[in-house]
UniProtKB/TrEMBL annotation:
Gene Ontology biological process terms, A to Z: DNA transposition
Protein name: IS110 family transposase
PANTHER family noted in UniProt: PUTATIVE TRANSPOSASE FOR IS117-RELATED (PTHR33055:SF3), TRANSPOSASE FOR INSERTION SEQUENCE ELEMENT IS1111A (PTHR33055)
Limits of the Transposase IS116/IS110/IS902 C-terminal domain: 285-369
Gene Ontology molecular function, alphabetical: DNA binding; transposase activity
Signal peptide: none
Organism for this UniProt entry: Acrocarpospora pleiomorpha
Length: 418
């Protein structure tokens, strides 16, 4: 016997609908988030199973000892609620919000929408199209921990880029000489000097000793030459702004410099946490043996792929999830092969970074990339082709439990370049 549940979740509650195999609605409820809501969900499901077992409505009923499978459709694949559903033995299907939206349009042309209606859509969707949906595979606690710190680390890197862009825009508006003097606005020495002298007049008065000291603390090379170049750039005549306006900009720049300093410190701290957690995972050695993957990138790849056994039956399944494999659109005489636009941003970012690093780490990867370029494929497309190949190699190594081997991975390319 199978029982289908649609779970439309919000921050503080869940709208749930239970449905049998014929599509008949058995129960509806709004449940609170947390242990109370989960207990009420178990009770609701238990009541329906008991009712069917007792054959209260004269139907065929449930045979004694017959197994019951509860299939739950929900628009997320993570969080304590989903983990509790899996721990209870339910089959949890992660439904992409785009999929449920298209399914809703199929049922209702009026485009009416409510939480209870969305729960009905999810229940009916898992009843009719469960074979088309991806079950949520439970990763190990260690993989979950790696995902938490790896995502937080990458998120801070993205935040640093955003704050650096804001800093650059502010400097361009009132202090363009700073953009000439400093090439990396996130560097510790640059942030120190901007915090000490955010106004053009104050920056022009910075001594060689002050500049050199900041460069030394940041462990820069050629301190003398760099300090001279910075001082000359800061003292270059430029178009100015009114004093009160410059002071206002200086306050914002000092604030951005302080934020970036803290973000840099936290990125370093989280990088240590990423390496610590990832280094204890059984698959860490295999992943780090891949060309272009170190501790940080390797942790990101593991975090986004997960480590649940059997999640990816084939290398093609893993490449499809990674969105490195192309899709084909064919209709009549028209046939177009294109990249996948719907993808996991964090995973595709890590895989492209791996592909770029592999160009110097692996002769076979370089030859594969060069062959793609020879077919008049652009740089980014060639990197995507290489990333697709590297994902297949990673899948084979993880499946067999073996480390990466250059000759085995690229037999044809190594033979050609020998």
């Amino acid at each position: 016997m199978r029982l289908f549940a649609g779970d439309d979740w919000a921050e503080d509650h869940h709208d749930v609908e239970l449905m049998d195999e014929s599509g008949r609605v058995l129960a509806r409820a709004r449940l609170p988030e947390g242990m109370e809501g989960m207990a009420r969900l178990h009770a609701l499901i238990g009541e329906q199973i008991s009712g069917r077992a007792g054959d209260q409505d004269g139907g065929p009923g449930q045979e004694a000892g017959e197994a019951v499978e509860v299939v739950v459709g929900i628009e997320t694949d993570r969080g304590p609620w989903v983990e509790a559903l899996i721990a209870a033995g339910y089959t949890v299907l992660a439904v992409n919000p785009l999929q449920s939206a298209r399914y809703r349009d199929r049922l209702r042309v009026s485009r009416a929408k409510s939480d209870a209606a969305d729960a009905h859509v999810l229940a009916d969707m898992v009843r009719t199209d469960a074979h088309q949906l991806r079950p949520v595979a439970a990763d190990s606690p260690r993989a979950e921990a790696i995902k938490v710190v790896a995502r937080a680390h990458k998120r801070l890197i993205w935040e640093r880029t955003r704050h650096a862009q804001r800093l650059r825009h502010a400097l361009r508006d009132y202090f363009p000489a700073a953009l000439v003097a400093f090439d990396d606005l996130t560097a510790p020495d640059v942030l120190e000097l901007l915090a000490a002298a955010p106004e053009p007049d104050a920056a022009a008065k910075l001594t060689m000793g002050r500049i050199s000291a900041a460069l030394k603390r940041a462990r820069r090379r050629n301190v003398g030459a760099k300090a001279t170049a910075i001082q000359q750039a800061l003292r270059t005549p430029q178009l100015g702004r009114p004093t009160v306006v410059s002071a206002a900009y200086a306050a914002t720049v000092a604030s951005q410099a302080a934020i970036l300093t803290v973000v840099n410190e936290q990125i370093t701290m989280l990088a240590e946490q990423v390496e610590q957690h990832f280094g204890q995972h059984p698959a860490a050695k295999i992943i780090c043996s891949q060309p272009g993957l170190g501790m940080i990138l390797g942790a990101r790849v593991l975090a986004e792929f997960g480590d649940a056994q059997g999640r990816y039956a084939t290398a093609k399944a893993r490449r499809n999830y990674a969105a490195t494999s192309p899709i084909t659109r064919a209709s009549g005489k028209k046939r177009v092969v294109m990249a996948r636009h719907v993808h996991n941003d964090r995973l595709i970012d890590a895989l492209h970074a791996q592909a770029f690093a592999a160009l110097t780490a692996s002769p076979g990867a370089r030859a594969y990339y060069d062959q793609a370029k020879a077919r008049d494929i652009g740089h980014h497309a060639a990197l995507r082709h290489l990333a697709n190949k590297l994902v297949a190699i990673l899948h084979g190594c993880l499946k067999t439990g073996t480390l990466y081997n250059e000759k085995t991975a690229w037999p044809h390319h190594n033979h050609a370049t020998a």
